[in-house]
Design goal:
By secondary structure, the protein is of the alpha/beta class. Helix content is 34%, strand content 24%. Helix 3 crosses helix 4 and helix 5 crosses helix 8 (213-235).
Length: 412
């Protein structure tokens, strides 16, 4: 039992295989782009960030990946080839963007902790580095995490790619409980097929590829029962006695989105059946936000399988374009390095494009905020020889804040 369970956990961390013919994700044979990796821990959740190298030349776009279900907390390395996260990382880096992932700090059906850990990581990166846009990619359970964050923090995130994301948690709990309780293989197979799934459902075929069908279905029952236990722990009980707990972590009840969302879903998905994607689409329409949502259906594809992953990757650039239409990419630069004699004055200035409304400015020397220096132009006079560094923090009317490049004043 332990061996089966551990194999399941490895396969279910993200349900992400390596796509092959796409613009966002390179082929498996593609060279890994040069990157700078940062690892750390925030409130008990491990994280990994990869920036394109050199660090001062990236496009200031960040992709944060929300992983799928795991009964135990994923351990480092968080980015690896076996679950596809390395391929998503490589694709993100190859177009000049940064990639980040959090372990959530726990296992189980960790929607609320996943939201907290992901948002804290995103805020940390935004406040520490020069980030202009943040996109969320959520897979399976992580899809629910990303969708809930999209509704809650529309000023922080610029778009969501939802890959087979969990929706209609009440239906999922009841279905998994029913399937886990079956003892007859024929009966279980019929129930799976009734929701459009294949027998055995993906990724059971990867977990136990050489086992007979009966063993594969028993492995699936074990997983269903694990889901039931973990969902009840997350929500505080069953749908009957903890309905508010289910609604709190179900995207169906949080569809009032304000940023672009693209969902990709397979019609043969047994874990999150395709009708739940249509239900979310209806909920978005009821909130009057259909213009921000696009659903791409992959006929015959299963839960975040190769075909679904490839389709999602093909639409990443579309998501970015939708985001730019809604909110242009704020860019700002400071000009320029200079060498002067003592006592001379130089005027640094900051230039911005892609801003919404009027920008505000705050200059810094090193890491020290300069009181009163809140104009796009800043005069500087230094009498002592040395190197002095400055940058400007620029904010637009939509709440987006970025830092310019650092400029240096050298006094001879």
């Amino acid at each position: 039992m332990r061996k089966i369970k551990s194999t399941i956990l490895v396969a279910l961390i993200a349900f992400a295989l390596i796509p092959t013919t796409i613009s966002m994700i390179p082929t498996a044979s593609a060279a890994t782009p040069a990157y700078t990796e940062v690892n750390g821990t925030l409130n008990g959740a491990n994280y990994t960030i990869r920036f394109p190298s050199p660090l001062n030349n990236w496009n200031r776009v960040l992709v944060v990946y929300c992983h799928g279900y795991s009964a135990t907390e994923p351990t480092r390395p968080l980015i690896k080839a076996t679950d596809g996260t390395e391929s998503w990382s490589n694709g993100t880096l190859s177009i000049g963007s940064a990639f980040a992932i959090s372990s959530f700090g726990t296992g189980g059906w960790a929607i609320q902790k996943g939201m907290n850990a992901t948002h804290e990581l995103a805020q940390f990166i935004v406040s520490t580095y020069k980030v202009a846009k943040v996109y969320l990619v959520g897979v399976s359970m992580g899809g629910a995490v990303a969708l809930l964050l999209a509704e809650k923090y529309p000023r922080v995130y610029s778009g969501v790619m939802d890959i087979s994301g969990s929706k209609n948690l009440t239906e999922r709990y009841n279905r998994m409980k029913d399937w886990g309780a079956t003892t007859n293989d024929t009966e279980l197979a019929a129930k799976i097929q009734a929701v459009g799934g294949k027998v055995p459902p993906f990724p059971i075929t990867l977990i136990a590829p050489t086992a007979n069908l009966s063993t594969q279905l028993q492995t699936f029952r074990t997983l269903c029962n694990r889901y039931v236990i973990d969902i009840a722990a997350e929500t505080g009980g069953t749908p009957e006695n903890a309905s508010q707990g289910y609604q709190k972590v179900d995207p169906l009840y949080h569809a009032n989105i304000s940023i672009p969302v693209i969902s990709v879903h397979g019609t043969a998905d047994a874990f999150t059946p395709y009708p739940s994607a249509l239900q979310y689409q209806t909920a978005v329409a009821a909130a009057g936000k259909s213009s921000l949502f696009r659903l791409y259906t992959v006929a015959g594809a299963e839960h975040a399988d190769l075909a679904v992953q490839a389709e999602a990757s093909r639409h990443m650039l579309e998501l970015a374009a939708l985001s730019r239409e809604l909110r242009p990419l704020l860019q700002a630069s400071a000009f320029c390095d200079v060498t002067l004699l003592p006592g001379w004055t130089w005027w640094f200035f900051a230039q911005s494009i892609g801003n919404v409304g009027t920008c505000t400015y705050q200059w810094y020397e090193g890491t020290t905020m300069l009181q009163g220096q809140t104009s796009m132009i800043m005069p500087v006079t230094k009498n002592a020889a040395g190197n002095y560094t400055f940058y400007c923090q620029v904010s637009d009317a939509d709440g987006v804040t970025i830092n310019t490049n650092t400029v240096t004043l050298t006094i001879m």
